[in-house]
From TrEMBL:
Keywords attached to this entry: Periplasm, Signal
Matches recorded under Pfam families: SBP_bac_8 (PF13416)
Gene3D superfamilies, per the entry: Periplasmic binding protein-like II
Example of a GO cellular component annotation carried by this entry: outer membrane-bounded periplasmic space
Protein name: ABC transporter substrate-binding protein
GO molecular function terms attached to this record: thiamine binding; thiamine pyrophosphate binding
SUPFAM superfamilies, sorted: Periplasmic binding protein-like II
A GO biological-process term: thiamine transport
Native organism: Neorhizobium lilium
Leader peptide range in chain numbering: 1-21
């Protein structure tokens, strides 16, 4: 018996030694630019710390930002001398970055875990894939709603005028809300957003802020507002943290799938370590850990997630997601942003 086991034991030892040698070959510093706040806290614990344990010769600097548009602005300003190696931001922004040559190609040879991603994770062949899945929701203060709301129409209820935190564009919370409003009205947003823009302009006078600080979740929990727009993952986290004071509602009219991508920056000063980090972030263990911590749906098909955590992600609600081509939406970003500024936000002043 011992004789038969020896080859397997030797093979396992060789694999372990090879993995350790490969980890030792990866060294130096990288800078990751990604979201601030609770995302940073949870990502550091679930992904970065285990990565550093696996790659002890690497140092990860986390540069936090509260918006994808700000991250893109930084990449543009640093194009001649990049200070960032890896960036996590929304899919619409990443497609702009790809087009402008700010992001570098990735292959399965560089990032082996690309081979195990679900099909929806491949945003643009050869470039940074999805690293999280999420969806847009309405958040509400449960003390103000003895009966939970079920429809997007609640944002137009005058009973809550002056008590709403609705995030506008350039955040994709704004473009997503426009798509969801079009669906509610029966409008084909790919042809026109005239009806949804007019409907959102009707909502505007009741909005307390279009730029929630520090965020809509905090304002709704502390009672400054009673309604807001947000993302399911953060909403579920804060619903738990607030002991149910925050409620999360997926409107019966449907929602939009939100994708964050992980990308290698063109001109990275340490591409070897940057690619190792991207590969780890896409691994089954990292994907499962972040889903358990923050309720983003995993992108790796081999991630093993508890039923309890998975039930709180968009994975169980895909039948309620509205069709939205983020590549196409990226081409409408400037036009829709102007509609928000000139027709919607201005109507609330």
């Amino acid at each position: 018996m011992i004789t038969r086991l020896l080859p397997a034991i030797i093979f396992a030892a060789l694999l372990s030694t090879t993995a350790q040698a490969q980890s030792a070959d990866v060294s130096g510093e990288i800078t990751l630019t990604a979201y601030s706040g609770i995302f940073q806290d949870k990502y550091n614990d679930a992904v970065i710390k285990p990565f550093l344990a696996k790659y002890p010769n690497v140092k990860v600097n986390y540069f936090a930002s509260n918006a994808s548009s700000a991250m893109l602005g930084n990449l543009r300003s640093q194009a001649g001398d990049p200070q960032t190696d890896v960036v996590i931001f929304d899919v619409s922004t990443s497609l702009i970055g790809d087009k402008e040559g700010l992001l570098a190609p990735l292959t399965a040879a560089d990032v082996p875990n690309l081979a195990d991603l679900v099909p929806q994770a491949i945003v643009k062949e050869g470039y940074g894939p999805a690293v999280t899945f999420d969806n847009l929701v309405v958040i509400y203060n449960t003390e103000a709603f003895p009966t939970p709301p079920t429809s997007l129409e609640v944002l137009w209820d005058k009973a809550y005028a002056g008590k709403m935190a609705v995030t506008s564009m350039p955040s994709i919370l704004g473009s997503g809300l426009m798509v969801m409003t079009s669906a509610m009205l029966g409008e084909d947003y790919t042809k026109s957003v005239k009806q949804s823009a007019a409907k959102l302009a009707e909502m505007a006078p009741g909005v307390q802020t279009f730029d929630p600080k520090p965020d809509a979740y905090t304002l709704v929990i502390n009672g400054t507002d009673v309604l807001g727009t947000g993302w399911n993952a953060r909403g579920q986290y804060y619903a738990d943290e607030s002991k149910g004071k925050l409620g999360v509602m997926l409107p019966k009219e449907g929602t939009i799938l939100q994708i964050n991508t992980i990308n290698l920056v063109q001109g990275s000063k340490n591409p070897v370590a940057a690619k190792a980090f991207i590969d780890y972030a896409l691994s089954p263990e990292a994907q499962a850990a972040f889903t358990e911590a923050m309720f983003y749906a995993p992108v790796n098909s081999k991630a093993k997630v508890s039923d309890k955590a998975m039930a709180l992600t968009v994975a169980g609600q895909l039948d309620k997601t509205l069709p939205l081509d983020w590549g196409w939406a990226a081409t409408k970003s400037d036009e829709w942003n102007q509609i928000w500024k000139r027709q919607i936000i201005s109507a609330g002043k």
